[in-house]
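Hi R.,

As promised on Friday, here is the backbone we talked about, encoded as structure tokens. Could you run it through your design pipeline when you get a chance and send me back a sequence?
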């Protein structure tokens, strides 16, 4: 069934301005703009013999995603692409900076998150792509102006082109829906109701709640974008508060009903398919296989609502060209290819990231991905929505920032240490990172002058 807004238009056809992007989390139409374009031709005509293009990215860096990029997403490009995927943000940042300092580079196209580009632009490392941007302002290939504005990084120049977007949601096996707490609505669950649901599931099926808490899992994004802001209203400034501590207490309670193998999970789609897990949280792309292969077996729904609201993390990645690129023409051709109608559609169907170009979601897209898209929209448009943006301005310290949240989880939830002492210790580590980078606060923390402060 198609979802409509008050104007009787499909939700993914409704334009969202930049204020909405920043206020409501900003997947801006993308999760819902997901391309009615599977049969469309690629945008325009690519230059002949685009040559050798080196692509370097922090995104699509898992084995499955990287292979899909090489074998599917660059097919049809009139050139040869060498795709290199960084193991970490720090590795990516170091290489880009090293090539900039040497004034000689081997990389032609960069793929990274918004926060990574904001740091690079400060050092004037990126080319202006305003000429490329002109090709994506009208028709089905148009990229929403709010996303394009983000790519300008506060300037009048287009430093990166929006490329793919995503977020995180929850999924449950349909057979546990009857075990929902009395009066609970699956599309508007509270954290308390999720915990009670997991307890009910355990009583019948055993510990079947699952989190991607393995070495390659993204559980730190759950803490940064969901748990901590939902309970405390912030990410950095509120890190040590009693409200944040109550969130970790919730996590400790939920962990009692969590499958013990969660400490090994990287993607939740596999344990959902095997039914080792019946209720899970993960990145939309890491739920994709389960929703594609057995769409009718799963219900996808928004993250829980906490005392401060429905905190969630919008994710926007873009494409840029470093000033040291050796093949600028080929780089621009590759960007146009990756943003073409057909490639954007393939991005959704092969790796589960939502397109940025406008258009309806094609009926050819699996029903599972359409259900996921609807869950994202519900999350975005909730009256209690509290977007918690990805870290901005951390550069190579992004991994250490994540480590603070993962270490906090390990100490409080896994090892059973007292929250107050742990938050004091880890808060000091967090402040050291903010001071070292000078990164100002990002939403939902209030704006800061200078480095964001842990209060």
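Update: got your reply. Pasting your designed sequence below so it's all in one thread:
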């Amino acid at each position: 069934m198609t979802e409509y807004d008050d104007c009787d238009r499909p939700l993914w056809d409704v334009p969202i301005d930049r204020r909405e992007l920043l206020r409501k989390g900003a997947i801006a139409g993308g999760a819902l703009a997901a391309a009615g374009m599977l049969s469309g031709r690629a945008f325009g005509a690519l230059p002949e013999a685009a040559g050798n293009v080196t692509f370097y990215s922090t995104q699509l860096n898992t084995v499955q995603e990287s292979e899909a990029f090489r074998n599917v997403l660059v097919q049809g490009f009139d050139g040869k692409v060498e795709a290199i995927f960084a193991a970490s943000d720090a590795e990516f940042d170091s290489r880009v900076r090293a090539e900039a300092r040497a004034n000689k580079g081997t990389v032609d196209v960069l793929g990274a998150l918004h926060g990574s580009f904001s740091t690079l632009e400060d050092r004037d490392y990126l080319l202006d792509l305003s000429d490329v941007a002109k090709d994506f302002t009208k028709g089905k290939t148009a990229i929403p102006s709010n996303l394009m504005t983000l790519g300008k990084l506060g300037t009048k120049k287009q430093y990166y082109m929006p490329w793919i977007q995503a977020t995180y949601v929850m999924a449950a096996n349909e057979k546990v829906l009857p075990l929902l707490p009395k009066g609970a609505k699956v599309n508007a669950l509270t954290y308390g109701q999720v915990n009670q649901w997991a307890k009910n599931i355990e009583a019948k099926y055993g510990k079947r709640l699952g989190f991607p808490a393995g070495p390659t899992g993204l559980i730190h994004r759950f803490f940064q974008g969901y748990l901590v802001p939902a309970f405390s209203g912030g990410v950095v400034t509120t890190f040590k508060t009693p409200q944040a501590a109550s969130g970790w207490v919730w996590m400790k309670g939920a962990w009692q009903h969590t499958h013990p193998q969660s400490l090994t999970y990287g993607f939740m789609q596999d344990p959902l398919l095997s039914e080792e897990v019946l209720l899970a949280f993960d990145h939309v792309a890491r739920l994709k296989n389960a929703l594609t292969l057995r769409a009718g077996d799963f219900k996808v729904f928004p993250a829980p609502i906490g005392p401060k609201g429905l905190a969630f993390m919008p994710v926007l990645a873009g494409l840029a060209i470093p000033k040291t690129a050796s093949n600028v023409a080929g780089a621009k051709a590759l960007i146009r290819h990756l943003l073409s109608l057909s490639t954007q559609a393939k991005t959704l169907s092969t790796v589960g990231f939502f397109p940025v170009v406008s258009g309806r979601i094609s009926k050819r897209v699996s029903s599972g991905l359409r259900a996921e898209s609807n869950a994202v929209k519900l999350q975005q448009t909730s009256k209690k929505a509290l977007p918690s943006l990805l870290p901005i301005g951390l550069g190579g310290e992004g991994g250490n920032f994540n480590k603070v949240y993962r270490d906090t989880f390990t100490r409080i939830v896994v090892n059973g240490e007292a929250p107050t002492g742990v938050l004091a210790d880890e808060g000091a580590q967090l402040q050291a990172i903010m001071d070292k980078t000078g990164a100002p606060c990002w939403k939902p923390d209030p704006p800061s002058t200078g480095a964001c402060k842990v209060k």
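One thing I noticed while checking it: The chain has a mean pLDDT of 88.

Thanks again,
M.
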